Amino acid sequence: MGQWKDKVKNREVVVGVLGLGYVGLPLAREFASAGLKVVGFDIDEKKVRILNSGRSIIKHVPHSQVKQMVKAGRFRATADMSRLKKVDAILICVPTPLTENREPDMQYIVGSTETIAKYIQPGQLIVLESTTYPGTTKELVAPILESSGLKAGKDFYLAYSPEREDPGNKDFTTRTIPKVIGGLTKKCCLMACELYGAAIVRTVPVSSLEAAEAAKILENIYRCINIAMVNELKIVFDRMGIDIWEVINAASTKPFGFKAFYPGPGLGGHCIPIDPFYLTWKARQYGMPTRFIELAGEINTSMPHYVISKTIEALNEHRKSLNGSSVLVLGLAYKKDIDDLRESPSIELIELLRERGAKVDYNDPYIPKTHKQRRHDLRMNSKKLSAKMLADYDVVLISTDHSDYDYEWIVKNAKLVVDTRNATATIRGARKKVIKA
To answer: Is the pLDDT of residue 115 over 80?
Structure first.
């Protein structure tokens, strides 16, 4: 333990980050900025070439930061997995999606762990960061790694530390968000705390791998259920002629006992729409129903359909049918001011509109064209905004409230606006053209 501390303190530890996406790249940046050498691993050779040229692949990690990491010799990306032998710690940052049956899809964790097992070296620290159900690290990851012949907790060290990325958040960065850490053994936990402590402002050790895994699941379930509540209230209050956003803003003036959550067109991002179902699946193994989680999931996944129904109503008032109408969707990212479209409700909205015969385009200043996803391939390019083009659409649907948009200008030039984010709330005369959904 003393040798490990000295190695971290002297910045002699080489950190391997497996998966250079929205979690892995910001993490690599923090370790490189703290003076440690980082090797980034990814199977996407195009991504590797871009990063090694000093350019970023995601908006909230600027090109200048990647260029500095590379220039300083503290970061290098590679698709050569045999180089895993050369690092002291391996941080696994891979996706954990759901299958079509809404069960955990562990293929990326399993594949990554099997790759590490081929090259694992005595003394290495392996940390899983991917959000998952309690028990994953001990029951799934450890046995695969031990197929190498090395023993977890003795020959190599194993920990779990959930990612807490919030792309676009200007108040917190990877460095300033406390890091929850659980280890297979006490030594595993201490080693991981030492390592993360070199780059993150605060580490939060917990008693076990399972406690750390459960902490991240709790964080996401908390948000999922509260968002579902305001989404349901949005529908109820709409029937009553009450503005849900006005109600939330009024309730927020209470200085205690209330935290504001806001409705939208559905849930997006890699965590909140997916991770609660990991616990639902695991709880079934213990004969325990998770009714709150499942009900919240039903409400949140139904919201795109509610938006479509409100769009149909809005068009009907203008003596138009959705079938054959032209629709411009504003914002493809799952939340404002980012370029991340994972699980974005905008994707489903576009597909639902197309299914009902609408002609659909989109604009997003951060996503110039769509790329193939695991379950979607829209094959679309962002349309450039102009007063004339806005006026040509039968309806403009605000799905993501990017700060770049001039909403007053949009409302002025559009025939009809469906606003799912309350983006037009302060615009005078908006009620004549705007339907909230």
So the answer is: yes
Instruction: Identify the active-site residue in 93, 188, 193, 271.
Output: 271
- The pLDDT value recorded for residue 120 is 98
- Integer-rounded Cα Rg, in Å, for the chain is 23
23 close to 96: Cβ distance less than 8 angstroms: no
pTM above 0.85, yes or no: yes
Smallest CA-to-CA distance from 328 within 410, 403, 225 is with 410
For residue 58, give both structure tokens.
């995601």
Question: 219: which DSSP letter?
Answer: H
> Interhelix angle for 291-317 vs 276-284, to 10°?
140
Alpha carbons 330 and 404: distance in angstroms, whole number: 11
Distances (CA, A) of 369 to 334, 358, 381, 386: 15, 20, 4, 18
Cα dist from 425 to 4, 235, 338, 349, 422, whole Å: 55, 18, 22, 22, 5
CATH topology of domain 2-207: Rossmann fold (3.40.50)
User: What distance in Å separates the CA atoms of residue 180 and residue 182, rounded to the nearest whole number?
Assistant: 7
Residue 218 has pLDDT above 80, yes or no: yes
Please list the residue range(s) of the chain that carry CATH number 3.40.50.720. 2-207, 223-436
For the packed helices 291-317 and 345-355, what is the interaxial angle rounded to 10 degrees? 50
Half-sphere exposure of 320 (CA within 13 A, CB side): 18
Tokens standing for 199?
Answer: 């780059």
Helix (H) or strand (E) holding 196: helix 186-197
Q: Distance between CA atoms of 9 and 301, rounded to whole angstroms?
A: 47
CATH fold group of domain 223-436: Rossmann fold (3.40.50)
First to last CA, the chain: 57
Q: pLDDT for 269-307, tens place per residue?
A: 777 778 888 899 999 999 999 999 999 989 999 999 999
Q: Rounded to the nearest 5 degrees, what angle is found at the Cα of 212, between the Cα atoms of 207 and 217? A: 145
Q: Is 224 annotated as catalytic?
A: no
Distance CA 137, CA 354 (A): 42
Instruction: Work out the number of other CB atoms within 10 angstroms of the CB of residue 290.
Output: 18
Per DSSP (E only), the strands in 86-143 are 89-92, 125-128
